[in-house]
Every structure is written in C-alpha cells, then in structure tokens.
C-alpha cells in the first residue's frame, strides 16, 4: 500500500485575514511626505425640496493646515429649474469641479489627516423679477480616503421672527444672511480651545444638496507598501498551490482505495 503524506501546510483562512488586517493597518499608518498629493473630482449633482424653483449653488473650500493648492477654491453652478421627481422637486446641476491638493507640512501619520478641507455651500434662488433669496447653508468635511463618496447635505437658513422681515423676503427678496460662510461650521477666525456659542440664532430647515466626491491619492511613500503586498500575495499563491496539490493527492488516494476494495470484492 502507498501512503501519501500531506506536503506543506494547509491554507488557513484565519491566518489570511489576520495578515490582511495587519497590512491594511500598516497602510493606514504610513507617513505623509513632501511628494503626497490628492486629486479631487467633485460634482454638485442636485438640490431638492427647496422653496423656490430656480436655484444655483455658491461654494468654496477652506483647506486644513499643511495643505496647499494652485487651483481656485471657490465657484458657482449654473441656475437650474426644479422638476417634479416623484414627490420631490429636484434641480439637477451635474456641475463638475476639480481640485489638486499638495501636502507641504511635516511628516504625519495617515490617521491624523482624515479631513483635508471643508466644503461650504450656499444655495440661492432667483425669481422672474431677478430677486435673490438665500435658500440654505451647508458644509461637510472633505475626506482624505481615496475612492468615491456620495453625500446628502441637509441645509438650513437663518430667519427672523419679525413680520416686516418676512414681508421683505416675499416682496423684495431681502433675507438674513451670514457674513462669512465659515460660520456654518466653526469659523476660521475662532479662537482655538474656546467654546463656540450660536445661541440666539433662529433658523429653519431647508432642502438637501447631493454632492459626489471622487478622490485619487498619489504619493511616493507607498513603494514599501506595494512591495509588502506583492510578497504577501506571493505567499498566498504558494499556500493555495500547496493546498491544491494536497487535495489532488488526497482524491487520488481515495480513488485508489476504492479501486482496491472493489478488486478484492470481485476476487472473493
């Protein structure tokens, strides 16, 4: 009788995922160097559930410390009229915006740079008489993670409880406005370490703005990571090959045993 022993270790799924998570954690903690840059393709897709019909969006970016850009950090979409989509009134923009950011700060770990900028939005309407109305404000943190992200930003706008202010908005288009759009979040000139109080500001909820963010990261500090992943995948291939050979030998051994048993029964 021939005895086939197992050659090489079996493929262990638990060890595979443990190694994968270790490499993923290593990728998340890689330091940024001076050659790191992010490319952002941003699309203001649509705005819905606003009071007025003809809408456009004014936007600008505030970069975090250590990031620079040679691109303009502000813009405005075209004016779009809302259309009924189901129960919602939607204004479609599909306004693309591209921005390149370069890291010029000291070496820091990836986990410390989850947000590289803040995007501020101001939704404005224009009616037949060329009167402008502020329909809402919103902001979001621009992610540092590469890939595609779709965000639905809820907006709000300041209102006045006085009757003459509401009549002014209806007849002449005057609205309470923010002097600085960064006041939508934490103002850029706010003193660090102190509390920010917005008590006393009367607001009401408005519509929703949909923004799609596509991020591409380019850096030279990934070469070591790529080499580690290549070696890891090579190890997985060797383990898978050894596991396949072991399975083939085991199947051959079972088939030969059945054949010998059948031959012995036939001779009896």
Automatic annotation (TrEMBL):
It holds the Pfam family B9-C2. One of its GO terms (cellular component) is cilium. GO terms for biological process: cell projection organization. Keywords: Cell projection, Cilium biogenesis/degradation, Cytoplasm, Cytoskeleton. It is found in: Cytoplasm, Cytoskeleton, Cilium basal body. InterPro entries: C2_B9-type_dom (IPR010796). This is Putative ciliary basal body-associated. It comes from Ixodes scapularis (Black-legged tick).
